Automatic annotation (TrEMBL), chain A:
EC numbers: 6.3.5.7
Source organism, top-level taxon: Bacteria
Protein name: Glutamyl-tRNA(Gln) amidotransferase subunit A
Record organism: Lacipirellula limnantheis
Domain Amidase: 24-493
GO molecular function, one term: transferase activity
Pfam families (alphabetical): Amidase
Subunit structure: Heterotrimer of A, B and C subunits.
InterPro entries tied to this protein: Amidase (IPR000120), Amidase_CS (IPR020556), Amidase_dom (IPR023631), AS_sf (IPR036928), GatA (IPR004412)
Keywords from the named record: ATP-binding, Ligase, Nucleotide-binding, Protein biosynthesis, Transferase
Annotated Gene Ontology cellular component terms: glutamyl-tRNA(Gln) amidotransferase complex
Automatic annotation (TrEMBL), chain B:
Family: Belongs to the GatB/GatE family. GatB subfamily.
Protein name as catalogued: Aspartyl/glutamyl-tRNA(Asn/Gln) amidotransferase subunit B
Function statement: Allows the formation of correctly charged Asn-tRNA(Asn) or Gln-tRNA(Gln) through the transamidation of misacylated Asp-tRNA(Asn) or Glu-tRNA(Gln) in organisms which lack either or both of asparaginyl-tRNA or glutaminyl-tRNA synthetases. The reaction takes place in the presence of glutamine and ATP through an activated phospho-Asp-tRNA(Asn) or phospho-Glu-tRNA(Gln).
Domain Asn/Gln amidotransferase residues, every copy: 342-486
Native source organism of the sequence: Lacipirellula limnantheis
Length: 516, 491
């Protein structure tokens, strides 16, 4: 078994006992990236020298007997949306292609504090908008299980990196499923914590009321390890919850006695791939065999989740992305070109005798905004900005934004009621396995529907997790989603671990060009 | 065309910068006058990933103000984003409050001591907290068309106070602003410095014209760019007849023309039309998801109310009722500011003579402050000393005619009353000695004696100068009284 095939928890033990050094491990990951990432495209930037320096420093400190953080020496890949003062934070957008923040996001700060080796920055859909990582301004990412397919998104780079064993751990963000969906499609564990559990400070906002940072790993134990390191109250984030972080790693192997599991009938409706359906049903049987009581719970408003989500998230995005106007930071379109273009337009109108129209061409400032945003944003980002600006406009606000907020409250209420009866809700994470790259790029609506099973957790602010529960006949992984009440991450992880311990889906890995 | 009677209807929007050390959503300094862009951080310049955290102090100050303005304080208030593009607004939105402001439905009482208008209550529609934008500096020097942006001010806490259109004249508007400023400085929430932009005023004004038994409202005009209370008064005095002329020319009524914005040109003394907003702007307000709503309990509001201290209106009442001052005098003292009023109260209390204390502080003391361009807190004569001086006059140690000299000396040299009396050689003149002195003078001036005896009492005045020559400390009134009394008794 190659070193990169080991879980972070195992690696941590090997590092602690000195059987392995962080340099060796980091080198192994870098070699893996070197070998496969030209095909996969998980990383936007890998700074091998910096990673090796960090690893060497940690090894030295370990040898000197200094106390080390909980992730000491473990390579962690970070989605390129969390500010790190030591590198660019591009959000996979031309707009921020050169952007360097003068501060660390709280999560990156915590990773540094935990002595993680920050091995590289992973690809994503631009500003985390998308479900296939095809919206990256720089490169697509391919699914390690089948490079003709998507790893999912928006955290596709992080999911692919972990699935391809280029890093044992990765950080993603989940606004409508952007951790769980790629985790499901890449056959790994991905978790979205309770809204407010992990600080959003330094996370470049897509939809502030929905965004949440979370871990990717190959096992639930590893996910617990990473979550524990990044959680906690942050006074710099007003939406951060002021509750102590439980020691997830200490309790994860304790099975939940008398577990009551909820199954949502609506989750098994039309559109669910039969192979996915049978894998999920099989997983439920596993739980039964472990003593869980399974109960049907309705989530009647879940069917409006995608609609509400695609009003709320773009509304917030249209506002959050207003700052990218070329004035203060980030990309600015070539002004001499824009001004020349403006002058030419005026000339043309004047020549045609349309003086009133000539007076109405953009002011130079407006043209600067326009040209900057036109060139700086990709199509999907622009689409969402337009959707959001429309939904918040006078005359439409009540019908769209306010209505969506009402739906959001009802969805939360559905969950509250369901969790009166059950401890966890189990179901599919996606309707089908990984789709082909390019398959949906021209059908945004179909792409939005990919989020069907995941958006409700974001709207309700509850924690949810995806873990491997099968492989299709075509050899593509299938994910199982577990959802828990607010702040019940511990229960969620223990419940997931019960299943994981009883099955071996999590041990399956992509062959990456070898025989499938 | 005949002239129709009209009423000017004025509402004011006042932006007050709250005296916090740091900005509304970050810890940057708010001090005025620093080098451009030196008081900024990732949060106030809206860098990607930065998040706002509410400055509790700013909320407390706005709460204090709202309570002092008799506003209702709802239990729940939230933050909204007001969205528009401008280079000095780095996030592309301003964090403000839209539909659920932190206070509403208050009032401020105004009156004029000279009775230019009847006392009235001006309604406060709402007061809400928001962050300030930055400052655009347009460099129009030859060959340069650059605009520069200073973000020092970005994120400074502002309280926007919106009045009802309850004012009916420029004088009322000015009185409202003066009373508001006084209130804000009494409760110490803002320095209200208009030059530094800590108090900014926009006025909404239109006319109600009576014609054929009907009232016609003219389109509302918003006036901006008024940099002093005097400018507000002048702009409104200019604007009302201008609107009347415009109505005579166009006949346009409210609703028939979009709201116009006009800027006040203080040098030319006119308002000028600014580019009218094409349509009413759509700011696409929505609740800011980065900030938690603020919950304020009734108990908290009570604590604030109790901690407010005495407000100007209450103090005026106390001075006129408890200190027997005229409303005019009470107004003069209170309007000088809290420190001045406190000084007066200290003098009145220590001297036991509130009326005399009032005469001193509103007369010689105020003149002295004006001449020295000083404020009361840096003035060289402590309240206790002025009180001593009043007591010295009241118990006869200091003749009232010589009191101004003593006052001047005490102010100039920082001396106390005893030292001033000594230096001026002011001594109490013994009554027997005074009687002897007057008797001598009467003996030397038989004409005066007969004049007095013939009822020409004013003749006694001629003795005062002579008496003062003999002894500068004599009380002229007493000399006069004695002269009359003794001359009459000689008959």
């Amino acid at each position: 078994m190659s070193i990169v095939d080991r879980s972070a928890t195992e690696l941590r033990k090997l590092l602690a006992t000195g059987e392995l050094t962080s340099i060796e491990l980091t080198r192994a990951c870098l070699e893996r990236i070197e070998r496969h990432d030209a095909t996969i495209g998980a990383f936007l930037r890998v700074d091998a020298a910096r990673a090796l320096d960090q690893a060497a420093a940690i090894d030295r400190r370990r040898q000197a007997g200094e106390p080390l953080g909980p992730l000491a020496g473990l390579p962690v890949a970070v989605k390129d949306v969390l500010c790190d003062r030591d590198t660019i934070t591009s959000c996979a957008s031309r707009m921020l292609a050169e952007f360097r923040s003068p501060y660390d996001s709280t999560v990156v700060g915590k990773l540094k504090q935990a002595d993680a080796v920050l091995i590289g920055r992973t690809n994503m859909d631009e500003f985390a908008m998308g479900g296939s990582t095809e919206n990256s301004a720089f490169q697509p990412t391919r699914n390690p299980w089948d490079p003709t397919r998507t790893p999912g998104g928006s955290s596709g780079g992080s999911a692919a990196a972990v699935a391809a064993r280029m890093a044992p751990l990765a950080i993603g963000t989940d606004t409508g499923g952007s951790i769980r969906q790629p985790a499901g499609l890449c056959g790994i564990v991905g978790m979205k914590p309770t809204y407010g559990r992990v600080s959003r400070f330094g996370l470049v906002a897509f939809a502030s009321s929905l965004d949440q940072v979370g871990p990717f790993a190959t096992t639930t134990e590893d996910a617990a390890l990473l979550l524990e390191a990044i959680s906690g109250h942050d006074p710099r984030d007003s939406t951060s919850i002021n509750q102590p972080t439980p020691r997830y790693t200490e309790s994860i192997n304790k099975p939940l006695a008398g577990l009551k599991l909820g199954v949502v009938p609506e989750h098994f409706g039309a559109g669910l791939d039969p192979e996915v359906a049978s894998s999920v049903r099989a997983a439920i049987e596993v739980y039964k065999s472990l003593g869980a009581e399974v109960k049907e719970v309705p989530l009647p408003h879940g069917k409006y989740g995608v609609a509400a989500y695609y009003v709320i998230a773009p509304s917030e995005a249209s506002s959050n992305l207003a700052r990218y106007d070329g004035v203060h930071f980030g990309f600015r379109a070539d002004q001499s070109a824009a001004l020349a273009e403006l002058a030419a337009e005026r000339q043309e109108l004047i020549a045609a005798g349309k003086t009133a129209a000539a007076d109405n061409v953009d002011a130079p400032l407006v043209r600067m905004y326009r040209s900057t945003r036109e060139a700086g944003f990709g199509a999907e980002v622009k689409r969402r900005i337009m959707l959001g600006a429309y939904a918040l406009s006078a005359g439409y606000y009540d019908a769209y934004y306010l209505k969506a907020l009402k739906v959001r409250r009802l969805i939360r209420r559905d969950f509250d009621e369901a969790f009166q009866q059950v401890d966890l809700i189990v179901g599919p994470v996606t309707a089908g396995p990984a789709f082909k790259l390019g398959e949906m790029v021209d059908d945004p609506l179909a792409m939005y529907l990919v989020d069907l099973y995941t958006v409700s957790a974001n709207l309700a602010g509850i924690p949810a997790l995806s873990l491997p529960c099968g492989v299709t006949k075509a050899g593509l992984p299938i994910g199982l989603q577990l959802q828990a009440p607010p702040l019940a991450e511990e229960r969620l992880l223990r419940g997931a671990r019960m299943y994981e311990a009883a099955t071996d889906w999590h041990t399956q890995r992509p062959s990456l060009g070898g025989a499938r | 065309m005949s002239e129709q009677p009209y009423t000017t209807v004025i509402g004011l929007e006042v932006h007050v910068q709250l005296s916090t050390e740091s900005k509304l959503f970050c810890r940057c300094n708010t001090k005025f006058g620093a080098e451009p862009n030196t008081q900024t951080c990732p949060v106030c310049i809206g860098m990607p990933g930065s998040l706002p955290v509410m400055n509790r102090r700013a909320y407390e100050l706005s709460l204090k103000t709202a309570v002092a303005l008799n506003c209702t304080i709802p239990e729940f208030t939230k933050w909204d984003r007001k969205q528009y593009y401008y280079p000095d607004l780095p996030k592309g939105y301003q964090i403000s409050q839209f539909d659920l402001p932190m206070s509403a439905d208050g009032y401020l009482e105004i009156s004029d001591p000279k009775d230019k208008f009847a006392p009235k209550r001006v309604g406060i529609i709402r007061a809400h907290l928001e962050e300030d934008a930055g400052k655009s500096v347009h460099d129009e020097a030859a060959g340069k068309a650059d605009s520069e942006i200073d973000l020092n001010r970005t994120g400074t806490p502002l309280l926007e106070i919106v009045s009802q259109p309850d004012m009916r004249s420029a004088a009322e508007a000015k009185a409202f602003l003066q009373e508001l400023k006084l209130l804000l400085t009494y409760i110490d929430v803002s320095d209200c410095n208009m030059q530094e932009g800590s108090l900014r005023v926009d006025a909404n004004v239109n006319l109600h014209i009576e014609k054929d038994g009907k009232v016609i409202a003219t389109p509302i005009v918003e006036i901006k760019n008024m940099n002093s209370f005097r400018a507000v008064e002048r702009a409104l005095e200019y604007e009302a007849p201008r609107q009347y002329r415009e109505w005579q020319e166009t006949g346009r009524q409210l609703g028939e023309a979009p709201k116009q914005t006009r800027g006040w040109d203080d040098v030319a003394g006119v308002t000028r039309g600014q580019r009218s907003k094409e349509e009413s702007s759509d700011y696409r307000y929505f609740p800011d998801p980065d900030l938690a709503p603020v919950i304020t309990s009734a108990a908290e509001v009570d604590v604030v109310r109790e901690s407010l201290g005495e407000l100007p209106a209450d103090l005026r009442r106390r001075l006129s009722e408890g200190y027997s001052l005229s409303l005019y005098d009470a107004d003069v003292i209170v309007n000088q500011g809290r420190e001045f009023a406190d000084y007066y109260l200290a003098v009145a209390g220590a001297s036991g003579n509130p009326k005399s204390a009032c005469n001193w502080v509103t007369g010689p003391l105020q003149r002295e402050l004006k001449e020295r361009e000083q404020t009361i807190d840096s003035f060289g004569l402590p309240a206790q000393r002025l009180a001593e001086l009043i007591r010295a006059v009241d118990d006869g140690r200091l003749p009232s005619t010589r009191a101004p000299e003593a006052f001047q000396l005490m102010v100039d040299k920082g001396s106390d009353v005893a030292a001033a009396l000594a230096e001026l050689k002011i001594e109490r003149v013994d009554e027997t000695a005074l009687v002897t002195l007057v008797q001598e003078l009467l003996a030397a001036n038989p004409k005066t004696v007969s004049d007095i005896q013939n009822g020409k009492f004013q003749a006694a005045a001629s003795l005062i100068g002579q008496a003062k020559k003999k002894n500068p400390n004599v009380d002229p009134n007493r000399v006069r009284e004695l002269a009359i009394e003794l001359a009459t008794s000689l008959q």
